[in-house]
Specification:
Layout lengths: L1 E8 L9 H9 E10 L1 H5 L3 H17 L4 E5 L2 H11 L4 E4 L5 H11 L3 E4 L22 H11 L32 H12 L3 H4 L12 H5 L5 H5 L6 H22 L21 H9 L5 H13 L4 H14 L4 H11 L5 H12 L14 H8 L4 H6 L21 H16 L1
Helix pairs in contact: 4-5, 6-11, 11-16, 13-14, 14-16, 15-16
The structure holds flavin-adenine dinucleotide.
């Protein structure tokens, strides 16, 4: 057994159900807990996501009895240096499936032994394949195979699994709050909202979803822990399917890393897109004149989060009503979302744009008015985020006010552009 090792936390900011902790405890008698603030990732993140990360780190540090070492710098340089300073020859991590993380880890592994155990997904990306070994490109058969493949039981770990090294190599985190009791939040959702999740999850006015995406993004909780706790019923089944979407998009990105930046379906490279910064700014600010779209964009700016139904509608609006490139919208989302996750975000956008896997048929263009009337029937969601409409009663609030474009006209334009590509 080695005398010391390093556990390098990244998107696994917890001590429960943590296979890399088990692997570290088997390998060495003591371990240093490390988190690296990587300027490349910080630059791409807006204030709310960085603040949420700090909260996660404060909670993890408290769980580790104040022994988390936080260092700012390039991980390729920092991780081997910190390992050498504590006399460790190995570093334990949960595998990262994203393009940046994979390249970074390969560079770190050239300098110090990197031991991967577990990943942020129920099933590690790349493991679920068709019988002939090729990846799935369509969700429904992936989901079937994913359920058949199954996942491990939660790993029994906690902060005491490892004897943590005390060190003054790191810097202090800015003062502030940690996270609320995430287990209690989960139990409240499971007991009160999960039974009706299947029927209510599409309603942004109801607060009927888990809002666990930021915790899942940073690995404060592992999806396997939630899957093991779901039980039976339509709500549980619908929730399981949503976690399968998360694994599916990570799997797609793992097989096709370039799909983070380009159309998954390359036929759409031929489709002309506009370059209108003014319209883009109006969309970003929630000033399109379509109240359901504006409410969503303002919720994003105010809370760093947006309801899934509204994400679909605002994304469709950017691509099909404003004819702007989906990657402009994806970049804005990644900057502002607390749960900003490259796989779910870029592929959520490509789904809406019709350029991705399992794409919504290109001729399905969301109507922002009827979507609002259907999923926010009393208009409460819009009135919550668009204060100037507070006095408009009921669903009348969904009627456009000084719209920057005419939906019917832009819908025809979008269909013509898509048809030209399909033709
Ligand atoms: P719940 O309904 O409680 O779902 C439980 C969990 O399942 C979520 O926390 C999430 O991890 C997963 N999930 C649910 N829906 C999806 C989905 N469509 N795709 C992948 N995973 C899903 N999700 C992100 O986590 N990060 C993103 O950056 C992101 N960007 C998106 C961009 C667009 C354009 C669209 C249409 C969707 C995006 N999503 C993203 C997916 C989805 O909107 C969020 O996961 C969901 O709204 C989070 O709220 P919740 O935790 O209450 O979800």
């Amino acid at each position: 057994m080695d005398s010391s090792t390093v556990v390098w936390f990244r998107r696994d900011l917890r001590t429960a159900d943590h296979p890399a902790l088990l692997a570290a405890a088997e390998r060495a008698s003591r371990a240093l807990a490390l988190f690296v603030l990587d300027p490349v990732l910080l630059r791409a993140s807006g204030g709310p996501r960085v603040e949420f990360l700090h909260r996660c780190l404060r909670s993890l540090d408290a769980d580790l009895g104040g022994r988390l070492v936080v260092v700012e710098g390039d991980p390729v340089e920092v991780v081997p240096r910190v390992a050498a300073e504590v006399g460790a020859t190995s570093v334990h991590v949960s595998a990262d499936a994203g393009p940046y993380g994979r390249a970074r880890d390969a560079a770190v592994a050239e300098r110090v032994e990197l031991v991967r155990a577990g990943s942020p997904y129920a099933v590690t990306p790349g493991r679920v394949t068709k019988p002939d070994g090729t990846p799935y490109r369509v969700f429904t058969p992936f989901c079937r195979a994913w359920l058949e493949h199954g996942w491990h039981s939660p790993a029994r770990t906690d902060a005491s699994t490892v004897d943590w090294i005390r060190s003054d190599l790191g810097r202090d985190l800015p003062a502030g709050d940690g996270l609320p009791d995430v287990r209690a939040l989960w139990e409240a959702f499971r007991d009160e909202k999960l039974p009706d999740y299947a029927t209510r999850r599409d309603r942004p006015d109801l607060d009927a979803t888990s809002r666990f995406s930021p915790f899942l993004k940073w690995g404060v909780v592992h999806p396997r822990t939630l899957l093991a706790d779901l039980g039976r019923g339509a709500g549980a089944q619908a929730f399981r399917t949503e976690l399968a979407w998360r694994d599916f998009y990570a799997d797609v990105l793992w097989h096709q890393p370039e799909s983070a930046r380009r159309n998954f379906n390359r036929a759409f490279d031929r489709m002309p897109v506009d370059d209108d910064r003014e319209r883009f700014e109006a969309w970003c600010a929630g000033r399109t004149g379509y109240p359901f779209v504006d409410a969503g964009m303002r919720q994003l700016l105010a809370e760093g989060w947006m309801h899934n139904r509204v994400r679909m509608v605002v994304a469709s609006f950017l691509v099909k009503d404003l004819h702007l490139p989906w990657w402009w919208g994806a970049r804005h989302f990644m900057r502002h979302l607390v749960d900003g996750d490259l796989a779910s975000n870029q592929h959520g956008w490509q789904w809406a744009a019709g350029t991705g896997t399992d794409a919504a048929p290109y001729f399905r263009v969301f109507n922002p008015v009827t979507q609002g009337e259907k999923f926010d029937p009393a208009g409460d969601y819009v009135r919550r985020y668009v204060p100037e409409l507070r006095d408009v009663p009921g669903k009348a609030v969904h009627q456009p006010r000084d719209p920057i474009v005419d939906h019917a006209q832009e819908r025809r334009e979008a269909l013509a552009r898509y048809a030209a590509v399909k033709g």
